Request: fold
Amino acid sequence: MNSFLWIENLGRDFRFGFRQIVRSPGFATIAIFTLALGIGANAAIFSLVNAIILRPLPYPSPQQLIGLGQWRNQTGEGYVQTGVSAPNMVDIARQTKIFQKVGYYRWSGFNITESNRPESVTGIKTSIDLLPMFGIQPLLGRLFTPDEMEPGHDQVVVIGHRLWLERYGADPMILGKTIDLDQRRYTIAGVMPANFRFTWDQEMDVFVPLALTPDERSEAARATSRDLQAQARLQPGVSVKQAQSAMDTLAANLEAQYPQANKGWGIKVEPLHAAYHRQMTTPLLIMSGAVLFVLLIACANVANLLLTRATGRRREIAVRVAIGANRSRLVVQMLTESVLLSVAGGALGLALAYVCDRLLTFEMTRYRRFSVPNASVISIDWRVLIYAAVVTLGTGIIFGLAPALTASRTNLNESLKAGGASSSADTGRRRLRNGLVISEIALALVLLCGAGLLVRTFMRLMQVDLGIDPTNVVTMGIDLPQYKYATPVQQTLFFRQLLQRVGSAPGVKSAGIEQPGSTVFFQPEGHAPVAPGQEPTARLNIVSTGDFSAMGIGMAAGRELLESDSAGSAPVAMISETVARRYWPHANPLGNHLTILVHVYSGQSAGTTQSLRIVGVVKDRRGSDLWEPRPDIYVPFEQHPISWAVLNVRTAVPPMTVVPSIREAVLALDKEQPLNDIMLLSEVVAQTYGTLRFPMMLVWIFAALALVLSAIGIFGVMSYAVSRRTQELAIRMALGADRRTVLRLVLREGLGVTLIGVSIGLAAALGLSRVMAGYVYGIKSTDPLTYAAAALLLTLVALAACFIPARRAMRVEPTRALRVE
Reply:
């Protein structure tokens, strides 16, 4: 029977602890809510970490899935990674000892041109092994067969679940029916399941076979078609390291056999999951550290509450000791109370985490701001529950242990005296309480400094000149199908006529087209040629004459592109100020020449080796990367024909009101041509800032929680200190001390604790400044103004928390206080 006595005692302890908590509803409410904030914030952020990093990709044996790409270290430009050329892909696929399957694909847009309902849809052209490699089983029908991978036999399609629902009303008899994509008739062979996301949490509308042409398979294509995205499944027992070693050997062989195409290019192997969450790892670690600080501050607060409560239970504890309770028994009994509080706080914290998860899911998937896998399935699963349980129990032990040990160390004789107290015990408790508050202040200051750096960074970025004016501008995409606009003349004529029609529409001030952001190697005049592939890079933007006016891009020197800059005239270009400063720092770039050599990420030739004469310099513009202005080159679309572009329209009226007339202009030229991605330019800019605002707001929320919890902790400690010094303060006032002296006395004590915490917090924040170095702009991660402002704010809040107990001390009536004592 004695072997199971501890179980009976534990049950008694829990029942007694529950009664003690019920008897002190005010104390229990504050403690539980404080813990709920800390545990809930940790559970919410962990659910985000779990969804993005810990949860495996939703495919069979996801640890075997890898991504493949060609890469090189680009001198002056850093790391460059591209797709893989088709001939190189054939060589990779032959490595059957390393890979079970190798799949590859191209992103592709399609126009549905049937039933007078033109619609742009997203899709991919895929090899036969790609979808089976992910273990995909269609909801209806089948995937592709080997013979459908040959040109002329590839007009079959598997449609996405969304398209099946929205366009075809979930027709169960859809198989065998046809769909017109770019005016080619495809037979529907299958329908994808509802939960399938093809990488990066994206749902594709159509999948068609990737039938490589003889030209794409030719040796010449090794250097001019580096545009296939590749993924593979490793053989059982083959590690990523072994696969990388094999690809290093293959890359060396390819470089030796085909030096012109493969010199300097390696083949990169990366676990598919790691490739997806690579950019999110550090921000998630920062947020996880922030919520951990909040939890520690919450623990320190509740520990202080328990210490204060234990002081009022000295006689009870002394009686327990007197009738035979040993110290370990007392510690266990008091720990059960703290664990009960923690469990209640954990339950409420999970409810808060659930609400936060819904908000996080909305923010992560809104406008597809964050391209990360599993962003749409942030939820509380078994991992989050286990994490919350461990945090809850650990928290209960952490914040309960120190008060339990302190309270159980009692002087029996002193504690049993009426109103007696052990001065040594009180001194130990006071030091522990002050130490907890100091740790709260230090942790809160670290969070405040980090949040301050992020806010100042965001404010600096908000003040950055984007180089454009988004006011009253609407943008939309136009993708001309190759079957109808196969020649440069046809493409140029369509866009020329479209600009004329849109430019004359009511309410339109200016209109232009732009194909943005294809990174290219180029050779600036006056600079010595360098090794192939080591030339400088810039973004090549193909634009029309009115695009600078439509986007609000200012001129710095020279002239704009003109309608006379056509196919028959001398080739010209405009450059951004960054290009001008970088390559002609001490000379006028106007009249100089540059040559576009090759597109970096596709490996395709620029199509011309003609020198482009620089006729103008425009103001720098910034894209999604707001940190640095990008080097831009602008060339006229009439000299560089394009089949897709973004139409930018500046209006004198509300921009969305001109969309119907723009759509009419497009349909008047081609009744099967849809518009896609219609958005206000101001919304595009807001999305860019929103990507930065999201992590900043989370850290600021955590910092605000830390600040509030720290203020509560200081208030609690000072209130207790005043209550314990009532007799001393009454005697001081009876002997002649005025109320201001008492106020200064109490504030001095609170300020001393605060300054110690601030000093420790500043040292810790400076030590962690390296973590923030990559996330600040326009300031240093050790910015003295930010650190001083955070320290001042925390000090003022601490003084405000001290002021209420100090005022209560001022109002002590000496005669009444001494009579009570």
User: Anything to note?
Assistant: Confidence is low (pLDDT under 50) at residues 418-422.
